[in-house]
Structure prediction request, 238 residues.
Amino acid sequence: MVNNQNEQLDAVFHALADPTRRAMIARLAQAPCGITELAAPFDMTLAAISKHIKVLEGAGLVVRNIQGRNHTCQLDTRPMVGGIEWLRHYEQFWNQRLDALTAALLAEDATTTDQTNSN
Amino acid sequence: MVNNQNEQLDAVFHALADPTRRAMIARLAQAPCGITELAAPFDMTLAAISKHIKVLEGAGLVVRNIQGRNHTCQLDTRPMVGGIEWLRHYEQFWNQRLDALTAALLAEDATTTDQTNSN
DNA sequence: ATTATATTTAACCAAATGGTTGACAATAAT
DNA sequence: ATTATTGTCAACCATTTGGTTAAATATAAT
Prediction:
């Protein structure tokens, strides 16, 4: 399916970069369900839905269970962990930098407002 | 740039779904830097780099500061927060479900291994 | 004034994306 | 046995993507 760590991230982020697919994930987070039911909210052909599901499967976010003519889709959130961790790393950075930025702005503010008492 | 919350997520996830752009973000997390320096590690035209930066800018992840002929790029991680929160919601789900799954597997294991003492 | 450097833009290209329609396959219901 | 339901597949289409080359722009250095 997906080879290295980087391609895994590619696949997951790409799968998530579409509102239809995100909505499908939201739906599947409630409970597993079949294709037709999963397709219901969307103004789109089943063929298109089928492709979206395949993208989600490709990223490992959905697993399919075939029972006769009914395919049941189930969410697997484990591939998300890589994405979360990648993002979390920068969230951390963000907090740091934001602190630094705040400090810088406060300092700057001090110099501009305190220009009267230049000591 | 980006209209609603959904399009913001589209843009951010799409921007992150490319290894070149993720590497750029990693580079910019060290310190802001110019285009040529940012382009250095990649076997790719400056024109291609320019496009990648534009995608990052479009998602709000990079802000550009033009000083004469030098453009300085700076990381802005704030747009990532939406993505993190979206994912975190399912990470939570993941933990729950994983617990349930673990329990189910343990129970199943118990029934298969403990078939001798059927009490 | 000329030349070098930094960067974008426009035009192009192949491949991928997101959708459609229509035909097919498999199973379930009558 | 026929018909209805569930879902995929193949072929097609327009648009987007990720890259190229070549030209243009703007600034800096000589």
